[in-house]
Write a structure and sequence with these properties.
By secondary structure, the chain is mainly β. Helix content is 8%, strand content 44%. The chain has a single domain (14-463), classed as Carbohydrate-selective porin OprB (Porin, Beta Barrel). The chain contains four helices and 18 strands. The strands form two sheets. The protein has a 16-stranded antiparallel barrel. A hairpin with a 4-residue loop joins strand 12 (318-332) and strand 13 (337-346). Helix 3 (297-307) packs parallel to helix 4. The longest helix has 13 residues, at 14-26.
Length: 464
């Protein structure tokens, strides 16, 4: 794991952060250049000519998140513990989404992003970490990275045809219900996989890592959550099959991906969409297998006992495979209320490689829009998640081992990590939102001797 820079508690560019948000929230939309060829397609067949859509696209988003926690009980702390004294931290990002629509069904997108800030405790101390806007690498001053640069090709076949609206990383194009979509380049695996309508985007719904994604889904990624690979999506009626091959990090939690192709991951997902009456729902079954140079807890514990030193998987890494599976269910109960459920398992013999230190997870929640009080674009969310570590991981942590996010030095009294999150998202304009968020964390990092922790948060987000 790369050493994190020293944490700073406040944004060193507050005027810059607020000014850029204001520009997004209250500025005018940028008009893209339209294609010259008209399209009046209304039948099932999609013509071979270029669709009526923009040739170029420009979108932007800005998100500022602040979180602070209370003073909590902690008789001891380790190298990756959340410190017990009350403190706060903030993150801010600004993303520019630029797209080119060169031919029918083809899209090229590049996302340049400016990031700044730190997660609480430098994004350490809780397996289900509190902010999906916080990366594992924090910096006190803004810096620029190209986070996505990918190509997408949609091949339409048969079935009903609809025109989807333009969005971030999406042109307004016609697509048929039966189609093949190929995505290749640099992007984030959750862009395509494990997509829950009500718990997947830390810029608009829940913030907690183990709610926006299944906690056991140890998807291939660099320290910012992005990777390079290729994925195919086969849509057939109410079914979709996704298959992907992606590069993993050089070592766990590394900012660099392994271009030698020695460390890679295969991801498969089956999606089923349905309606109960007129109420939509879907089920996702997701599986992954990581083939990488990784450490087994058993080997680390044996070496620790022989050398009388803290356990470390970094000392016993060799090529291995770590599989995992998960299920996601979402269902609308009415026009304004929906529920979701997630459950996941990952092999607990090996260290987590990319995401976080979770071997079992169960999460559920509900989402309610504000139509009942005449605030249709407002949303309330409430969810609970239980994260669990394998027996070997608990022994490893008790022997002084550290994972991606957790490690209190010892773990004499281990238990499951329990998290409750509630938020209210207030729409202040068509493109601007302010959110109040609260999280309660019991047994942080599986440690019954520490906590509970109350985390209060606020989010300011805008996009066009």
């Amino acid at each position: 794991m790369k050493k994190r820079l020293k944490q700073r508690r406040v944004c060193p560019r507050p005027v810059l952060c607020l000014g850029l948000f204001a520009a997004l929230a209250f500025g005018q939309k940028v008009k893209a250049i339209p294609a010259s060829s008209p399209l009046t397609q209304t039948t099932d067949a999609v013509p071979d000519t270029l669709e009526t859509t923009d040739v170029f696209a420009l979108h932007a988003q800005s998100t500022l998140v602040w979180q602070g926690h209370n003073t909590f009980n902690a008789p001891y702390s380790g190298p990756q513990s959340l410190k017990p004294a009350a403190r706060g931290a903030e993150t801010w990002d600004l993303t520019l989404f630029t797209g080119l629509h060169p031919w029918k069904g083809g899209e090229i997108w590049v996302n340049g992003e400016v990031d700044q800030g730190f997660g609480l405790g430098n994004t350490l101390g809780i397996a289900g970490f509190s902010s999906g806007e916080a990366y594992k690498l924090g910096r006190g001053t803004p810096y620029f990275r190209v986070q996505r640069a990918f190509f997408r090709q949609t091949f339409n076949f048969s079935g009903t045809t609809e025109k989807i609206p333009s969005d971030l990383n999406q042109f307004s194009i016609h697509q048929s219900s039966n189609r093949l979509v190929i995505t290749a380049g640099k992007f984030s695996i959750p862009d395509l996989y494990d997509n829950n309508t009500y718990a997947h985007d830390p810029r608009s719904d829940f913030l907690n890592w183990s709610l926006i994604d299944t906690g056991t889904f140890d998807y291939a990624a660099d320290s910012w959550g992005y990777t390079t690979g290729i994925a195919t999506e086969w849509f057939q009626g109410r079914w979709t099959l996704r298959s992907g091959l992606f590069l993993m990090s050089v070592i766990p939690n590394s900012p660099d991906t392994d271009t030698s192709f020695k460390n890679f991951q295969i991801d498969e997902e089956l999606e089923e969409r349905h309606s109960i009456g007129s109420l939509p729902g879907k089920i996702l079954l997701t599986a992954f297998n990581s083939h990488a140079h990784m450490g087994r807890f058993k080997d680390a514990l044996l070496l620790s006992a022989l050398t009388n030193t803290p356990a470390s998987t970094a000392d016993v890494r060799k090529m291995g495979n770590r599989p995992g599976v998960s299920m996601t269910l979402e269902q609308s109960l009415s026009a304004n209320i929906a529920i979701f459920l997630r459950a996941g398992w990952a092999d607990g013999h090996y260290e987590s490689y990319e995401f976080t230190d979770i071997d079992r997870t169960l999460a559920g929640g509900a989402s309610l829009d504000g139509a009942a009080w005449h605030r249709q674009n407002d949303r309330i969310g409430l969810a609970y998640v239980m994260n669990a570590a394998s027996g070997l991981r608990k022994k490893y942590l008790n022997a002084g081992g550290t994972g991606l996010l957790v490690g209190d030095g010892i773990l004499p009294h281990a238990g499951n990590e329990h998290i409750v999150e509630a938020y209210y998202d207030l729409a202040v304009s068509n493109i601007g939102h302010i959110t109040l968020d609260y999280q309660w964390v019991g047994n942080p990092a599986y440690n019954m001797d520490r906590g509970p922790v109350s985390i209060f948060g606020g989010r300011v987000h805008s996009e066009f």
